[in-house]
Amino acid sequence: MQVLEKLLDRIIQRVNINLRELGFDVAPYVRELIQRKQMFKFYAFYGITPHHPLNFQFTHSNLAGSYFLGSCRVTNSLLYKSDIRGDELKKKGTLFQFQDFEIPITRDEQIEIEDSFLIKTLVHNYSHDPETPEKFFIKDTISMHYANIHGSPSYGCFLGPFSTVDLTTMRDCVIGAFSYIQAGEISHIKIDPGTVWVRSPDKFNFLYRYEKNQLNKYIDFTPGNRPKGLLFDFVEDHKKEFERIFALVNIETPRSVPGSASLDRYAVIKPHTNISENVLVAQRAYLKNAWLGKGANAQENCYIINSRLEGYNVTAHGGKIIEADLGKKVFVGFNSFLRGSPDARLTIGKESIIMPHTIIDISDPLTIPPAHIIWGLVTNKKDLETNSMPISEFSKIETKFSLGNMIFEGSGASFISAFRHRIDHILEANGAFFNGAENKGHAQKNQSISFNTIQPYPMGELKGLYPSIIIQP
Amino acid sequence: MQVLEKLLDRIIQRVNINLRELGFDVAPYVRELIQRKQMFKFYAFYGITPHHPLNFQFTHSNLAGSYFLGSCRVTNSLLYKSDIRGDELKKKGTLFQFQDFEIPITRDEQIEIEDSFLIKTLVHNYSHDPETPEKFFIKDTISMHYANIHGSPSYGCFLGPFSTVDLTTMRDCVIGAFSYIQAGEISHIKIDPGTVWVRSPDKFNFLYRYEKNQLNKYIDFTPGNRPKGLLFDFVEDHKKEFERIFALVNIETPRSVPGSASLDRYAVIKPHTNISENVLVAQRAYLKNAWLGKGANAQENCYIINSRLEGYNVTAHGGKIIEADLGKKVFVGFNSFLRGSPDARLTIGKESIIMPHTIIDISDPLTIPPAHIIWGLVTNKKDLETNSMPISEFSKIETKFSLGNMIFEGSGASFISAFRHRIDHILEANGAFFNGAENKGHAQKNQSISFNTIQPYPMGELKGLYPSIIIQP
Questions:
Q1: Residue of chain A whose Cα is closest to the Cα of B449
Q2: How many CB atoms lie within 10 A of CB A438?
Q3: Is the ipTM of this complex over 0.85?
Q4: What is the dotted CATH code of the domain comprising A2-228+449-471?
């Protein structure tokens, strides 16, 4: 057990050294967060398929409950129930277009995690940093429950629970709980909890901040305590239902799934769920009485409960949809929490964009018209006035605009077009547009994955540590 | 799938080249034996502990349902539900005593399986060959169901079902079904089915041969067919009961097991089973209403049903004991089949030696007095006259002796003493003599093993092949 203690101490020290300028001490946040016995209770697992790169190297780490796909190296790290999905990494011999640079990729990209501690974190996509196109690094980094590290190399950072860093290289930063950052490159800054920040230099800058007292109801993270609040309680309440899928070696497919769709065997599928063509359901997703139309997807840590999604819906990593009806091509961003109830259903019109880290939590029925963009906290119809706009209106913004707690600078059209482009790309990557022959994506390529399990030394000096494991084609 | 076909063709050709002088064609025996779909249905698994060497290298092979412990390398091979137990291999820096040679061991010994096809085969112990002390090789070899390759490097051989080669280096040999060979070194010979041969050059030579028509009732193996007969039916009849232990990730211990004993989680334990101190139950053992006294062991592929073993009993790999009462220190050799019934119990007095590959199959109650040695086929009291002797009498043989189908040459005392020595060594290695502090063996060291599972490519060109996997400390 001591070897894990030492590893944790070492990681904490490294992150603190990186964050010394911000005067941020990660120790009280993380030291007692995961009981050590949990760290050798759960097996880790990795996927083997002919459709993905295959290159795993695990050294001197604990990987309890974590999942790996594609190409990843993990060294001197603690990964607790995290998903490291290296299935969108760049391939050797391709060109990486960044602004005017055409960067030749000279070796297969790899996710390289070193001296880091990730808790229930999702790592996905590829390095969007032109300075490091072949290495998606996560070094001297600590991330908390349900953080998303999406296309974002990280060095010396602390990510709070339910935070997302998207397409952004970070150095020596603290990202507050439930903050969403998409800013290209950031360094030496501390982001307050509940910040939603989307920036494209010279093009636009979107900034929303949750009121602290309102945010605390949903997520509250203080030193020495586990995360608290509605969001955390919600996932904890469903934890038990995941036990069975990890306890059995083989899981029967609960219902017929079209040949063009894929349902991960590590997803929980409860009764009355409909899976249409080209649907992707990722591991650790939870579906209950969920109707997923053609090309819809439910990504890691999604919950779709008593809801209907008409088709081509993206429910990004950590999105939660409860008692809601979503029209075609509604996009639900990372970690959004949309909660209606049987007496107060939420209806969202087609082609609307729910910004990442949006909370819609209603007691009366609420309808959002088609083609709207929604952000921040919405608890009733009135809130929509300050937290949503028709996309067509938003596109008209040319220089500066503010509404409620949201500030926007730059071109609204450019912002919307970037979003639309991104949504189409996600649908494409997930295989939503597969026509039986072309446009294969994750939904088609993930259908048949073999899962291998790995476990740590059960006792002795190295208790809790995984042996060195190398898996290559 | 084609890649497995190619691999099998290649292995068959290699073995046939080795066996060309004997004019033996393995193809009709093995080509259709295992349906290809079975070869990607089952996961393989390996154990991680701090007490065993840890060095696994799997390359270009299918390992369906096989288990690995210790140090093994598998290349270009098909291993179907086999056990490769590298937990008794020699350690670097030790001395290997062989006759008058003291051989320094300069690197950790490894089991190296190459270009071979093993079906439900047990590989255990270490290379007893002084010419190759650090490499326990199995090359260009095909072995059938429930064969035991025990401390026996093999090159270019074919082993029939339920055959055992023990402490013997083989080159270019065919070992018939249910034959037991312990002969030091053999080459270019074809052993008929049902041969029990124990030879120590210049010391003794024991030879028994089953009558063909009698043996066929128990095991019959002809080209183009699966093995037939009572022995094969018996294990097939119990196959279903093993499914559950492979389907669950974690198995609860069915009852309290003393801290000094170990019960493998891949053993089947049915009700009314008692596990005393220092007991070892290996993977794929089957216990039902079995009373195991202190220091008893049940090795791989053992079945102990409605029986009582008083203590310090060795039930070697593949031994089967049904409706029997065994006194203290009764030794039951490899693949022996001892079958009483509720109305016709079998009683074996203490310190008796049941030679490997003995069949005792009775319809009336039968009692074997203490300190007897038993061999061959015994179906009633009369058969004991030609198939057993008091050990004290056997020890008096000085030059030559024969009884029934058994011929003995050399020193009976030396033969018995070699056996006794071996039994003590097995008990010691298995931890039967553990006193709470000293004399740890497998029973104590195997208590806490982590199991990792591995699977092949599920589809595509490499379907059925496992990726390259390297596991080291």
A1: A458
A2: 7
A3: no
A4: 2.160.10.10
